[in-house]
Design brief:
Layout (H helix, E strand, L loop, with lengths): L6 H12 L4 H4 L8 H15 L3 H16 L6 H12 L9 H22 L3 H21 L3 H10 L10
Length: 164
Amino acid sequence: MSSKIDAKTLHRLDIQGLDQVPEDTLAPLASWLRLPYVLCAAMATAGVSLASPVILWLLAPIALLAALFPVHPFDLIYNHGLRHLTGTGPFPARGAPARFACGLGGVWLVGTGLAFAAGNMMLGMVLGWFLVGLASLVAISNICIPSMVFRAIFGPPQRNTGAG
């Protein structure tokens, strides 16, 4: 596996709170680190497409657990299964910005589900597709808007590059 990661991807992962993880640890995991977001985006897409509060409410505790703990529940799929097939190490702990994003997502999922349950299809669709868009953005590009908001409030990543 490569021990290098392109600067853009590294910066995006740093914004998500992985700025204390060595670059050579992140490099072989970089594409796999999107897995939890891909799964969340897929489940949210199903929930919104079907206007299903149940699907959204099933995803909400997963997101909220990801906010409370440094290991996303979907990280466990990789850590206890896929990584043995890929020959890579386990995922590092998720940083506060990513956990903030998951907490926001969990609350958003509950709200979107409530909108559908109340019969407010327009509000549910607007909230839901916006959430799916944000989850898809991080799943595809590692650009995490809620992590950027966290960084704007609490300060930029502090990667120690060894220079200086």
